[in-house]
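Recap from last week: sequence in, structure out.
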Amino acid sequence: MGGPSSFLFAHRPSLSAIFPILPQYRPCPCRAPLPLTFSRNWVTLFAHPLSDSSPLSLLESRASLIQELKEQLNQKLEKIALSMLADLREKPPAGLAPAWVAPSNPTLGDLSTPIAFTLAKVARRRPRDLAAELVTRLDLSSDFCEKVEVAGTGYINLYLKPQWWRKGLQEVVEQGEPYGHRALGKGRKVLVEFVSANPTGPLHVGHGRGAAVGDVLANLLSAMGFEVRREYYVNDAGTQMDILGRSVWARYQELLGVDCSFPENGYRGGYIRDLASRLIAAKGRALLDLLQEEAVSLCREFAVNQILEEIRKDLAQFGVSFDQWFSETTLYQRDEVSKAIAELEEKGFIYRSEGALWFSSTRFGDDKDRVLIRETGEPTYFASDVAYHADKFRRGFDLLIDIWGADHHGYIPRMKALVQALGHPADAFQVLLVQLVNLLRGTKPVPMSTRAGEFVPLAEVISEVGADAARFLFLTRRSDSHLDFDLEVAKAQSMENPVYYVQYAHARLCSVLREAEKAGFDLERRNPDLDLLSLKEELSIIKLLVGYPEVLRDAALSYEPHRITAYLQELASQIHSYYNRYRFITEDRLLSDARLYLAQAILVVLKNALNLLGVTAPQRM
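Predicted structure tokens:
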């Protein structure tokens, strides 16, 4: 049989160390970024529930149709396998639970399991012989099973009846908007902290990618029944704020004709001059009469407020909002940094050396201990992070998810150590890394903005291509993979533009339903003859729709929003192909009713998935 890569049923037994909070998951074996178009076989799903020991292990109140089937099959196969081993007086091997996958070649069935290979190691028999015996004992229901056969050297391949798939179509339409959503989390509290860009300049395209990943991940976890809050950590304390204030103060003086030197490490983007001009408009020459440190402080406060206002505006245009904007300064105002360090010291994780205060992070696997308070008495950036994450846990969150730029990967071990020192499992803190965005116009890199400095502002990209295109394209690859973002593709009103491709599929079917209403079809009818949907293309689309809840679950619990864009592109591809070849409204009234019902089901899933991405689902284009 082919490799286990099909998106409907393939098993995901465990996550890598990046996601240990889900011990039975692992990223797709192919670490390469997914392309913008897909064959049938591209994403993997679950075979059985999460471990009860995991913070994300609460079972859904109602499993999807596919999940229910796999659980039934698992119970039957596992019972038979244990009986066979008991006859041989052998102990069951680790990992006996059957893993169901979809063969890469659809002619080999809808589901396949390699359980015979696991048993063969213990039973000391040929896998194919064991598979044949398992099939003989399996006695599957004729309600869903068309046939079961042994393939290759020992795979068990199961063919599902088309009627079973069509039954799933009814579930899509009947559930409507919440189709695929579940109560997995049962209200467990998750805090997603993302963007958190220093208020030293405008947001750039890299921040935009992180914003899209964080916002959509929060949507996905909410859809799985977790209580999710979004938070922006405002780094408004420390050296960078002082540099910002001195940079604006230097430009302020320059614009007023005062001879001064610009800070060697100052911010040189054109936006600093813009801030100084606004400050002059608000305060005139008044700052020249102040002591320098007082003037720098006022410049810093003014600049931070102005920049944060622009950041809020840019994020609002991008469709991103936060439940809380958490100021780093408040940690010092409430003496939280000292309290958090005192807590660690009380637990025995703090020591003094060379005049500095150190955290014993090596006791939790870090490669070296970390300084919290320098010999000068000045706290490090890590000290603020200690207090901030201690505060997060005190607020009652079960899981903290931070979304960082990829250049911060080396910071993860010390944070994991901190979480454990505070008395929480290391898995209660997760980090998603976001790689750089290469902005292109055609095949040529986009030049940097002279106003912004060494980056392209997010606002310029949103203005040119729109929030829908930007959000969708930012999510077309794994967040930890580099992304080429072509502005010309993002603006194109053609099938080459992925978001246009998906949105147009939605608009096309909305048009079909409008025409159906004009022709007198009753779109509220809930009992069409779905057996009339007998074309292989129709069955293929139905399988995609029935598989959507598992795709959604997978994307949420593996923290991989890009799986939703991949799924949508595959679905849109099949919709456009079907639309161009067949008519939804035909002379056969009963067939038309069935195809219109299919169109309604497709629209449910398209709108559901687009909403989770924060992308509009237009009815006309």
